[in-house]
Write a structure and sequence with these properties.
Number of strands: 0
Largest sheet: none
Radius of gyration: 20 Å
Shape: globular
Number of helices: 8
Distance between the termini: 39 Å
Strand content: under 5%
Structural class: mainly alpha
């Protein structure tokens, strides 16, 4: 990774960490009876928060010189971009003041920064259609965790995985729909990555390599 890769990755890591800190701060202001650990535990039920944390760790590693494989960078970009799409498509609500900044940070600013970094700087070689299936693992792990946790503590983070609100059949339908969306999005990332990593032909159309004498 070049200095440009590492410096911009550092900025994204700081942005994600700042966004997470802001979420904790807003939560503590609104819930004055909560200790910090209680607010962290509450926020830990959200896919948005956990995926932003994944972004922060991944990009902090890049800033420190760790070389993440292309399939992982593409996965993180896909997951955080879907955070933005689902939020703005299904979950967004009118907010103002610091709550608006807090929600925009984790749902919009971080996804845009990661998406642009992936497009401009991330290595994209070796992406294959099978990766789109591998990338379903994190959403599957998360949904399993959220459903089990929700049955124990009585709070489900999103309406589409709340069986008490829409029933188990509704949860199943939403999970299938979101799974297909993740898979199709993953295929799109693979196609885009392969397109962007394809070597360009010489301007005059001559083949690469030494010319016959």
């Amino acid at each position: 990774m070049t200095q440009t890769h590492r410096f911009t990755a550092l900025l994204i890591a700081l942005l994600a960490l700042g966004a997470l800190w802001l979420q904790v701060h807003v939560g503590l202001v609104r819930r004055t009876d909560h200790e910090v650990w209680q607010e962290l535990w509450r926020l830990g039920r959200y896919f948005t928060i956990l995926t932003n944390l994944m972004v922060a760790v991944t990009f902090a590693g890049i800033a420190a010189g760790h070389r993440s494989p292309p399939w992982w960078l593409a996965a993180v970009a896909l997951w955080i971009l879907i955070v933005a799409i689902v939020y703005h498509g299904l979950l967004a609500r009118p907010l103002d003041g610091i709550r608006w900044w807090s929600d925009m940070a984790v749902h919009t600013f971080v996804p845009i920064a990661v998406g642009l970094w992936w497009l401009a700087l991330a290595p994209k070689d070796g992406l294959m259609p099978r990766h789109a299936l591998w990338w379903l693992l994190w959403p599957l792990i998360y949904v399993s965790y959220a459903l089990i946790r929700g049955e124990f503590d009585g709070s489900h983070p999103y309406f589409f995985i709340d069986p008490h609100e829409i029933g188990w059949s509704g949860v199943g339908l939403w999970c299938v729909a979101l799974g297909v969306s993740f898979w199709l999005g993953g295929l799109g990332v693979v196609m885009l990555g392969r397109l962007l990593s394809r070597p360009s032909r010489p301007a005059d159309g001559a083949p690469d390599g030494p010319q016959a004498q």
